[in-house]
Every structure is written in C-alpha cells, then in structure tokens.
Design brief:
This protein is an alpha+beta fold and 214 residues long. 33% of the residues lie in helices and 29% in strands. The protein has two domains: 58 residues, no CATH class; 132 residues, Pnp Oxidase, Chain A. The protein has eight helices and nine strands. The protein starts with 8 loop residues before the first helix and ends with a helix. 19% of the residues are buried.
Length: 214
C-alpha cells in the first residue's frame, strides 16, 4: 500500500493520454511509472485534481511492483531498538484479528511487551500463540519491520524487566512512578515474542518510488 500523495503533472498527463488507449497504458506500466495507482484501486480518485479514474483504466494496468527494498539485518536490529510503538495482531476466538498499539522492548533476539493479565491480547495468545507485530515510521522516511512469530505469556515476577521496558520511554524515576500506578489497576504479565520470520521495507532505498513521488 502506498501513502496518499499529490501526483506529478507528468503522471497525470500520462493518464490523460492513455485513458482511451489501453495498449499505451500497458506500455507505460511496464516502466513502473504507473505503479502508484495500485493505491487508488479502491478509491478510484486521482488526488491532484480529484478526478474519478475509470475502472477499465485500472484494469488495463499490468502491475509489476511488489514492495520496497528491505532493511539489512543490522538496520532491523537498530530499528527495533529505537522505534517507540508497535502494533500487535493476535487471533480472536472467532478468527478475526485483534490489533493494538503498544510499547515494547527488543533485545537478545526477542520482543518483550507488558499486558494486563486478563486483556484480550493475553487471552488470545494463551489460546493461539501465533502473532504478527508491525513496527513502522511514517513519511518522509517510510520504513517498517513486520515480525511473524510465537508469543508466550509469563506470569512469574518480572518487576525489574518491567522497569527496564518503561525506562525506554522515560527517566527511571518517572518509570518507577508509572509502573507503580499501573500495578494498582491491573496485574501486568510479561509477553515474549520469538520471531520466526521478519520482513521489512525501506522506501528510502526505492529509487522508482522516489522518482514517482518527485
């Protein structure tokens, strides 16, 4: 999926010329110049002038774009250590996805999060440990890491580790006060996520994307 953007004059002209000439449209798409229109497949609106795009026009396009280049292994490690917010996806009992933003800490090849003992995500993981974690940053430097793995709930005491997690976001004194307040409203358990597969994307490395975005 591409972020919303204002399309360049050149791209709009290409669309106007190709509108009634599907063969020319396909020729243009081979160069990758029209790949961004995948984003408009649902809205069918060109942002620059808010013109409606003919569905036949989109259907004639031969999309060859898959995704942006990945981060290196070293970049992934640094990214996960520095990023502030993750989105955890777990399975509800009826098969739907439960997605929540949360704080996390990465180290020693695993991800640690805190969760109320009886929260939806904790109950989901106890029933099905398969989870997906998305960590990303938005424009101008669009990067992200997607972690597919197994999660485990730990109910033993983890006071020091919990403090270590929250000190990623604030000074230790403030974290101590924060954790004390949290402990008054719920019993917080530790959840560890062991990655089984990691995917990533870095649009700063995508020359085609940067060329289109102008």
């Amino acid at each position: 999926m591409f972020p919303s953007c204002v399309l360049s004059d050149t791209l709009v002209r290409k669309l106007r010329v190709s509108r009634y000439n599907p063969s020319q449209l396909r020729d243009n798409s081979k160069s990758g110049n029209l790949q961004i229109y995948e984003y408009y497949r649902n809205t069918q609106v060109i942002n620059r002038e808010e013109r409606t795009v003919d569905s036949k026009l989109l259907g004639a396009m031969k999309m060859t774009y898959t995704q942006a280049p990945p981060l290196t292994k070293e970049e992934i490690g640094l990214f996960l250590k520095d990023a502030k917010t993750a989105r955890l996806c777990s399975f509800n009992k009826n098969g739907t996805i439960h997605a929540v933003p949360l704080w996390f800490k990465y180290g020693n090849g695993q991800i640690i999060i805190a969760s109320p003992e009886h929260s939806q995500k904790t109950r989901n993981i106890l029933r099905n440990p398969n989870v997906t974690l998305l960590v990303d940053i938005e424009a101008p430097q669009i990067q992200g890491v997607i972690v597919y793995g197994k999660a485990k709930v730990h109910t033993d005491d983890w006071t020091e580790e919990f403090l270590s997690l929250t000190t990623k976001y604030m000074a230790k004194k403030d974290a101590e006060i924060w954790n004390e307040g949290l402990s008054k409203i719920a019993n917080w358990v530790k959840i560890t996520i062991i990655p089984e597969h990691i995917a990533s994307f870095d649009y700063e490395k995508d020359d085609e994307f940067k060329k289109i975005m102008g």
